[in-house]
């Protein structure tokens, strides 16, 4: 038996050595042999730098983020920063790092797979979801944020889409995902690059001012508001108007949707949505707020409002499906070596990513017109936002020049 174990160990060592030599001769990095351990499955999403796919690995199903090296040329540090950061994180409400490897033209980051769905989609499956339930959810998310902040990490992209349930079980953990733009802060370091998602980014981020941990508290305030009423506290569609709306400090709680929600919940939101980052509570201080203890939260059922939010979001997802299909096609055109990492059927991939059911074979003329109109409007908004951002940057530069 002992000889058998020694023989197996020797064979394994020789096999790894041979694989490493073959990789070297083929121009592949030393870690490339790990790729054979993962069988790629459906596409879960696509972003600026690559895609995320489900895969079967040695430990079961996982998520594999595939990043094209061409897309991060000159910014490779960004990938290594994400890897270093993920390997440091160990928290029940944060997605778990599993492994990483690379090929000639791609990086692969393997993480725990969350199959229970996004926060808002999952809530819609419940028969009832109360303010007390919302308080518990926010407490879990804030617990994860507090862990990050204690370790001098700022997430910078908190939004409902990055809050996922690990499984379909009723008692499944909610986890925070997507650390692609998260940053580890040095002592007293302030970040200045634009980061985050439209509608959830703090005003100092949109103005490209120095920012840090308080941006996560702002985003959590937007999430809490939206979770309790089914719409965002800020509804401007252009960047200058959104900045102005956020900086005004006026948070409106419309009586029709908020009259049954506790005063404590509104006070909690007001504390987080302070235009001046210095006036926002730290994650540790926010965790001590009375609303998060659940004692002051009501049993008011907010599920109807959330379902209305999801109904509006599904039309947006139809638009995102089209964008995602185009994104995957563009990424496939950039491939150098093994093309099996990117899906052959980008339409199916887009459907999987959106969480929507595949569309029927034939759409009515009205439906086709609606989708076309939304795609066109989305493109127009995108162009307007870009123009507005350029104007804001010019105004800021002019103001800075005037002060000097």
Automatic annotation (TrEMBL):
GO molecular function ontology, one term from the record? ATP binding
Q: Catalytic activity, per the record?
A: L-threonyl-[protein] + ATP = O-phospho-L-threonyl-[protein] + ADP + H(+); L-seryl-[protein] + ATP = O-phospho-L-seryl-[protein] + ADP + H(+)
Question: Which intervals hold domain Protein kinase?
Answer: 38-292
| Record EC number | 2.7.11.17
Which UniProt keywords are present, listed alphabetically?
Answer: ATP-binding, Calmodulin-binding, Kinase, Nucleotide-binding, Phosphoprotein, Serine/threonine-protein kinase, Transferase
**Highest taxon above the source species:** Eukaryota
* Family affiliation: Belongs to the protein kinase superfamily. CAMK Ser/Thr protein kinase family. CaMK subfamily.
**Know the name of this protein?**
calcium/calmodulin-dependent protein kinase
The taxonomy runs: Eukaryota, Fungi, Dikarya, Ascomycota, Pezizomycotina
